[in-house]
Amino acid sequence: MSVASRGQGLPLAVGGLIALMGSTAVITTAAASWWPNLTLLAATLLLGGITWLITRHRPGPRVLLGVLLFAGACQLPGLTLAPITSTDAYRYVWDGRVQLSGSSPYSHVPLDDSLARLRDPILFPGLSPEDRTGVTGPPRVPHDAAALAAVSADDPRTRINRPRVPTIYPPVAQAYFTVVAFLTPWSAGTFGLQLAAAALAVGVTALLATELRRRDRDPRWAVLWGWSPMVALEAGSAAHVDVLAAGLIVAALVTAVRRRPVVTGLLLGAAAGVKLLPLLLLPAFTALRRQSLTTPIVAVGAFVASYLPQVLAVGTLVLGFLPGYLGQEGFSDGSSRSAILALVLPPAARQIVTGVLAIALAVLAIRLHGRQPIAVTCCWLYGAALLLTTPTYPWYGLPLIALAVLAGRAEWLAVPVASYLAYASFGHELRQGLLHLTAALIVLTTTHARSMAAAVTSAGEAAPV
User: Fold this and answer.
1) Which of the listed residues 126, 315, 387, 458 has the most CB atoms within 10 Å of its CB?
2) Residues of the signal sequence (predicted)?
3) What is the pTM of this model?
């Protein structure tokens, strides 16, 4: 097969896989939820087409300004509404408010009567400060699955999810919640966090565009993040803290290229202090040489140091609901929820295979250190981790969108898209598995085609004239 025929066949193959993803999402979901799925998929494909078209022309002198202005405009609709995709922002507001009061969200649950003075009609529409719930004392997270499900159930009297369990968010995220809570009046509800997340999303757009230009790449590719419907949903609308984690990861990669290992480690440790998932990127910054261990050592040190004040204040309660959450997600009881592996393997085998593959990927990332751009390594390392574990919540993929833009690997955007489509099929492992498998096939097909094209190009350059 010639190179030309391969180039013509690739769009058809990838297009067929995208069509399969869309049809799976539409056919296998309920009638009430297929329309948002189709809209998200269509909007993402439209964005990809627009990006491809605008990057065919030479950028003008004010291209960055236009990219940023439209990125800001994409965030505006979400600011006019309450969070759509989840209620996490209400927990963020509560955590910040609790810390400002001098208490700890690790040692008190939202329904705790000792914090009744912090209730307001927005967070607690069914409870006033004078009402009593009977919940007092340090939180206890049970190990039994049935008891864990009962204690983590929602309560109609509050918009805060899991109001009978402590927070799950790490200390750097808590510091962010506290700062925003200090600047936001109670009557504004989640608006302060939504505005902060929208500003962060635009800031990440600027950082990506600036870095792309510094690397002699078209800065307009940053629109895949800044104009993304997924980013708009999770920043200006849902205010998810993953936007902050994405920004810190991008900043870490920017400083890594400029050979500032200590700053890179601090930024990466801070990202892990926002959401634990950035710890998965440590192998990409590790090499079997003493001078290449600075970044991971500093990152782990910064992450641990962020927990020390909380440990001194509340002791082991600093773990919050994390053990219970890992149990519900199948990471601590031997029943990994990997939707792709669930298509062919029983729970116990899934846990083993996931562990083996995770170790293999980490070793591969270490071996590739210095042989390919670190952004590329981080992109496939983070994306592969999401495909292996297929977490329930799609906003976990926000850092992957930023990594895909910085690495120039747009095919990885299929993974967060699949996560959103699977989110509407929660509880149906077959549907979730098929959607994530399709995303994996898109990534593998495109990656193979890129490798083949690079090999042909290298052979052509090496051939005599």
Assistant:
1) 387
2) none
3) 0.90
